[in-house]
Design goal:
The chain is of the alpha+beta class. It has four domains: 92 residues, Rossmann fold, CATH 3.40.50.20; 67 residues, Dna Ligase, domain 1 (2-Layer Sandwich), CATH 3.30.1490; 130 residues, D-amino Acid Aminotransferase, Chain A, domain 1 (2-Layer Sandwich); 95 residues, Glycinamide Ribonucleotide Synthetase, Chain A, domain 4, CATH 3.90.600.10. The protein has an eight-stranded antiparallel β-sheet, with helices on both faces. It has a five-stranded parallel β-sheet with strand order 3-2-1-4-5, with helices on both faces. The chain binds glycine. Glycine (GLY) binds next to loops.
Amino acid sequence: MNILIVGSGGREHALAWKISRSPLLTRLVCAPGNPGMAALAETRAVGATDVDGLLALSVEIKADLVVIGPETAIEAGVADRLAEAGIPCFGPNRKAGQLESSKAFAKTFAARHGLPSGRFAVFETVGPAELYLKSLQAPFVIKADGLAAGKGVVIAPDRAVAVAAIGDILGGRFGSAGARVVIEEFLEGEIASQFAFCDGRTHLLFGGAQDHKRAYDNDEGPNTGGMGAYAPAPILSPTMVAQADRTLISPTFSGIAAEGAPYRGVLFCEMMVTAEGPKLVEFNVRFGDPECQVLMLRLESDLVPYLLAVATGGLAALPPPIWRDAAAICVVLAAEGYPGTPTTGVEITGLDADFGADVVVFHASTTRRDDGALISSGGRVLNVCALAPTLAEARGRAYAAIDRIEFPGGFCRRDIGARAMAV
Ligand code: GLY
């Protein structure tokens, strides 16, 4: 099969790494890809939101399957355009993609379909938004309506911080993504990421993980796109996952189909495991990043038949995926300044070291300088991942590898997976 992967981050590198191991693969092309993906596949300078360019590339390489990584490509309508051309695509269309591209749509969808979630309201102006805070208890959850790379969410410990966040969002910090603000009740519990594939009719649970959203150790500092992940997550017991499927995931797939947008892709259900069971925090319409990295390390089954079945409607014929009986961890190495303005252009060395068995470094924001040196090009720069019989061993391997990588100014959290080890 000829497969095109859309995207250039650590998630897409992990997908390329897994797909490149498939016996079904003939040719793998990544658009635009990154220097890490270039070691596994052809890379082509077509952006993830360049709908015309991606269609032309798919036709040129006679793609049997296009796999969309980032939400920006979904919002741009890549899946819609490929569907018009009859090219199988793993990734939902724009209409279904609203589950992520509009927090207001997602929360009203949840309310329409009776999904357990917190109270919320949506505002376009500051005054009524500030007034609504009076009906909630601190902390407050303040979100920009649109896509903001994981940075449009503020958990405000008090009213003053909430008011500042509302002003920030409605004041234009996120451009049109902040035209509306969503204010939500804070849910108490432990947050977890559950994934499910759907081909428009049938769905299949596809693993779970836990992310670390805050920038610094002990869950301190600002929210980020995710600083590290591990799997399996003890909180996602079979009972909990079955309940999440019954109350959140199944009704979401049936609900979005009933609203005229059958879902074809992976649904990332970010949920709070509360005393009353799992409640929706938010939906994402693509793999989590860095959750995808640990899922790909643990996945024993060939990924390609599942991706193709999602795109073409054959999921009912496939068994549940098989996972390795091992723990996987991903530690994000971020650039100085992240999640604010990261320092870019910093040279990275040491990646050619032998990090030992089952250690993989995925590139998240890297590029090559004219002289060939590898340099940073964004906030989350590298994903240092390891698989081992226990989480403690996986952590040891990942942090040992990190300590051998030279990336001046770079930082990582040192407590990834610590919560699961305390269980
Ligand atoms: N790791 C969270 C996300 O991908 O949105």
